Amino acid sequence: QVQLVESGGGLVQAGGSLRLSCAASGSTFSSYNMGWFRQDPGKEREFLVAITWSGSHTNYADSVKGRFTISRDNAKNTVYLQMNSLKPEDTAVYYCAARGDGSRLSVSPYEYEYWGQGTQVAVSS
Q1: Residue 81: enclosing H or E segment and its boundaries?
Q2: For residue 63, what pLDDT is reported?
Q3: 1 in Cβ contact with 100 (< 8 Å)
Q4: Is residue 15 classed as helix, strand or coil in its secondary structure?
Q5: Which of 96, 45, 93, 87 is nearest to 66 (CA)?
Q6: pLDDT in tens, the chain (125 residues)
Q7: What is the DSSP secondary-structure string of 19-74?
Q8: Could you give the CA distance from residue 32 to residue 116 in angstroms, rounded to a whole number?
């Protein structure tokens, strides 16, 4: 099992930046592909980006491509999401997730086994 804890959310003005962190504990973090998702109340969880266990491959949603960057540090059991040029529509609860099947990067939240509790990001206009 993997336990995930997100941090780094907060309130920022449009055009600003935030860096989210997701600290993992439990099983071998370096064997899991990781993803970031976000969710607004009443909406489905939205895929943002995923990264392979080695960090060699990533997959970004069009909505964040060029603005958000995922990275991971397996020595620190942590995955990061650098968010730049934030927009009010980026306001949501942000979640990190872990997927044990490393054969491909998945965009479906249903294919991720472990989730953090989420961190709120609010972008003011």
Answers
A1: strand 78-83
A2: 95
A3: no
A4: coil
A5: 87
A6: 899 999 999 999 999 999 999 999 987 888 899 999 999 988 999 999 999 999 999 999 999 999 999 999 999 999 999 999 999 999 999 999 999 877 788 999 999 999 999 999 999 99
A7: EEEEEEEES-GGGSEEEEEEE-TTSPPEEEEEE-TTSS-EEE-TTTTTTEEEEEET
A8: 14
- Cα 28 to Cα 42, 91, 102, 105: the distances in Å are 34, 31, 13, 18
pLDDT, position 121: 98
Q: Do residues 87 and 123 touch, judged by C-beta distance below 8 A?
A: yes
Please tell me the predicted confidence (pLDDT) of residue 102: 72
Residue whose tokens read 């989420």: 118
Distance CA 72, CA 25 (A): 14
Residue 95 tokens, joined: 């979640």
Segment (H or E) for 121: strand 119-124
